[in-house]
Write a structure and sequence with these properties.
Elements lengths: L3 H12 L3 H4 L7 H14 L4 H23 L14 H12 L3 H26 L6 H27 L9 H4 L2
Helix pairs in contact: 1-4, 3-4, 6-7
Length: 173
């Protein structure tokens, strides 16, 4: 409820002008957002309960379709104040117009993640041949290390995954 999508949705319900939220969805899903907006406006003046139900319906529809557009699933609206710390930091960087501290902290976290997984895999490799159990512990550490670095490399070289984009067209139906 504290995120920029819902904040924009609250603003458009207040001024009854939808354009501000359309940036959060692709063109293929615009009609679904317009329909949800019109339905919310049609009933929200009936009572406080109707207003809450209509607003929640509009927020959920907008966030669900926006998340699908990103290739992510909808897990419900989070309460006000519940923003993933990394997203809050990214939002602060955008507000401040300076990404340096955020980039430095993120790079340090990636470096620490690589170093920790490397150290664990390296230590377990030294004793991997002493028993099947130690060998399995090494393989587990090896997989965690290599999958982490492959994930980081993939993120850096190709950007975030959008593996669920094929389902986007079905979301609004």
């Amino acid at each position: 409820m504290s995120g920029p999508v819902v904040q924009d949705a609250q603003a458009v319900l207040a001024d009854e002008r939808i354009d501000r939220v359309l940036k959060w969805v692709d063109e293929d899903n615009e009609a679904a957002i317009r329909d949800a907006f019109e339905m919310a406006l049609a009933v929200r003046g009936e009572s406080d309960v109707a207003r809450n139900v209509a607003d929640t319906y509009f927020f959920e529809t907008l966030v669900r379709i926006h998340r699908a557009t990103e290739g992510e699933g909808f897990t419900g609206l989070k309460p006000a104040g519940h923003v993933d710390p990394v997203i809050a930091a990214a939002d602060r960087a955008l507000e401040d117009g300076n990404v340096d501290q955020f980039a430095t902290e993120t790079a340090a976290a990636v470096q620490e993640g690589i170093q920790q997984r490397f150290s664990d895999a390296y230590d377990k490799r030294q004793v991997a041949e002493q028993s099947v159990e130690q060998g399995r512990e090494y393989v587990k550490a090896y997989v965690e290390f290599t999958h982490f670095v492959v994930g980081v490399d993939h993120l850096v070289s190709t950007g975030p995954s959008h593996k669920h984009l094929d389902a986007v067209a079905e979301v609004a139906q």
